[in-house]
Fold:
Amino acid sequence: MDKEESPIFVVGMPRSGTTLISAMLTSHPNIAISPETHFLSEWIRRYRRLDVRREKDFNKFWGRFGDSSFFRNLQLDAETVRNQILSSGDHDYKDIFSTILKLYAEKKNKRRWGEKTPTHYAHIHQLLEWHPESRIVYMVRDPRAVVASRLDMSEKYPLSWWHPRTVEDISFQWRNSINILNYWANDNRIYPIIYEKLIQDTLSELRRLCGFIGEEYSLSMLSYTEVAKDLVANDPWKESVFKPIIADSIDKWRLKLLTDEISTIEYVSRKGMNQFMYQMVGKPHGFFKKFRLNIANTIRIVKMKLIKRTSLL
Structure:
């Protein structure tokens, strides 16, 4: 495996520890994981009708992306990156994405490049099609902790936090993320990390992770708070990465969620929770509440299919 052509992509539910593991990886002497670009989940989706191999379409796309906060967080010169992309000749979306990340790693004096956008878990097929030798780190966290954290973020940063904001929506999203992970279960390029295990036994988990990506473990991975500044950028909800790892924080959701909220999360997420051995503690919902949740999920699936079909027209 050519490590320089084996990028590392970090994905998983938002608030599942993707920033923490990215900071640890970036603290490795050979690895640079860039801040979030949302390149596949937002930018390609938004400009899917453009053929960026044509000069006019490329200029339109680059004018928007190069002036975005996502690009500015990389602290790269837009004109330099643009010229580098154009010099590659047939500059499609893969070339744009890869060139940006390679230049980011070059700026950090690292030979191994990568990127962290949590919701790119829904675009693993594209990442692997573009880079068959890539390694994908897939973070998994207790859905109750994910929901509690995201509700907290929605309350603290209502104008900035744009992810789903209700207990039901977040729970269904968590379930979908586990379904996607299971779809790739037999692909040895995908590596799930359980957030709680990372917190409780950090050294062992990092050693295993390094084995997966083909790098020697480095003690520098435990000194990640300095490099975390680049990953946090202007997102204050990620600042917990600067705090010491405390195992007691794993169960903080118990103090934040209502009894009915816990029951809803556990019902929606029950299969994934059993798979990853998260213990149920809530009181089971009655028939009518379960029925309502099942109907809500059916409506949600139909809406998603309609949106996807419409976007292809």
